[in-house]
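Need a sequence for this fold. Nothing fancy.
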């Protein structure tokens, strides 16, 4: 049986990007190369508008599966290349289409090589009858189950019928970098993944409050980031000591304002670190209305401390949708491990759902938070997860 020679990578959204296109292809090429580095013998080639992965005898299943996680790929086609010879084209077409499931087919021919003796229509009129005669398939030119593509080029004829969906979006890295607030809950890893799909790289910031929060939370974060390494091979995690700030908040503000002020402090820290690390935006797993600190009024009061854009990929999703994605990217089981984080420990009985900005400012001005923030930033622990 004929085996596939290449995987042809389709860019989708990239194709519309005009002058940035070559940059995108370069980044995507590097990302694919990195993702496939453990597949011995598999090589890459960039040609015209496509990237080709040469299987060199490698079974395509695992390669395709790995590539389906790479953002910026619209689709993957398994391709056979034969010499520009109508007999070869006929027999390869028949063999490939026999491996597909369906009742109807259509032959689609592109002739890039104008010196080939037959034109597109002639090729179709030779190949289609061979298929009709040797299979149970019938022709459907509008919605065929199987689309058999034949592309005649200078170096040979490419034939493909099997196509897999890619992850879509943009290649990781072309969208810049975000300072992502990672909590260890369900939402923030999902938000990170959604950003990566859009081509945005992340660095993570986590606020730890030992001894109130346990060291085990950090292992949980590392496990979560290892799952996300599938989409971004190297992730920097900044662990910010948050205990003193949290204690100062609870010493100076009424319980109902503690969450609001705590989150204002988190945003201040994240914004400062973002600037330091050249991230033009910060991001979170917040979702509108999910908890007291995520009502629109709370978001307004919390967001007031920074002018850096805050991206909230989960903003309008409901919990079930978010959980579905977390299951897909395999972070759910890790996220539900029952460790306390700094939010759960200090959660007041009655947090304000509509905090007042003036009040929040009044309470936080009772202590010198600028100094505490700078101290915390100077004592960050960094881990690289790869
Ligand atoms: P998650 O499931 O992501 O923890 P959540 O529903 O528990 O979200 P909150 O605890 O209010 O909601 O947190 C909202 C967002 O704030 C989180 O998604 C995360 O981006 C950020 N965040 C919360 N706690 C921390 C923390 N300790 N360190 C870093 N970021 C945090
Ligand atoms: Mg949380």
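Here you go.
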């Amino acid at each position: 049986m004929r085996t596939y020679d290449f995987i042809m990578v389709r860019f989708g959204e990239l194709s519309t990007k005009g002058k940035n296109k070559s940059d995108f292809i370069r980044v995507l090429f590097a990302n694919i190369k990195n993702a496939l580095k453990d597949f011995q013998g598999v090589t890459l080639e960039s040609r015209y508008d496509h990237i080709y992965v040469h299987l060199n005898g490698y079974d395509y299943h695992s390669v395709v599966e790995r590539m389906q996680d790479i953002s910026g790929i619209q689709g993957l086609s398994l391709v056979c290349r034969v010499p520009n010879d109508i007999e070869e084209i006929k027999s390869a077409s028949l063999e490939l289409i026999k491996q597909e499931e369906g009742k109807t087919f259509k032959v689609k021919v592109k002739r890039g090589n104008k010196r080939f003796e037959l034109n597109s229509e002639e090729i179709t009129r030779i190949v289609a009858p061979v298929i009709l005669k040797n299979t149970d398939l019938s022709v459907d030119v509008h919605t065929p189950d199987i689309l058999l593509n034949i592309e005649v080029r200078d170096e040979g004829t490419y034939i493909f019928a099997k196509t897999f969906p890619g992850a879509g979006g943009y290649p990781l890295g072309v969208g810049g970098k975000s300072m992502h607030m990672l909590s260890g809950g369900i939402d923030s890893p999902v938000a990170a993944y959604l950003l990566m799909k859009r081509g945005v790289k992340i660095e993570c910031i986590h606020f730890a409050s030992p001894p109130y929060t346990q060291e085990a939370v950090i292992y949980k974060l590392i496990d979560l980031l290892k799952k996300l390494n599938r989409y971004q091979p190297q992730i920097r995690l900044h662990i910010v000591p948050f205990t003193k700030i949290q204690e100062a908040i609870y010493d100076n503000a009424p319980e109902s304002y503690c969450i609001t002020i705590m989150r204002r402090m988190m945003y201040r820290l994240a914004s400062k670190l973002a600037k330091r690390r050249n991230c033009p935006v910060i991001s979170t797993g917040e979702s509108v209305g999910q908890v007291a600190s995520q009502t629109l009024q709370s978001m307004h009061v919390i967001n007031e401390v920074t002018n850096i854009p805050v991206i909230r990929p989960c903003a309008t999703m409901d919990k079930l949708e978010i959980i579905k994605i977390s299951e897909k990217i395999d972070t759910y089981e890790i996220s539900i491990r029952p460790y306390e984080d700094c939010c759960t420990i200090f959660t007041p009985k009655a947090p304000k759902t509509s905090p007042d900005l003036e009040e929040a400012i009044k309470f936080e001005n009772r202590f010198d938070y600028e100094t505490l923030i700078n101290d915390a930033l100077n004592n960050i622990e960094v881990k690289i997860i790869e």
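For context: The mean pLDDT is 91.
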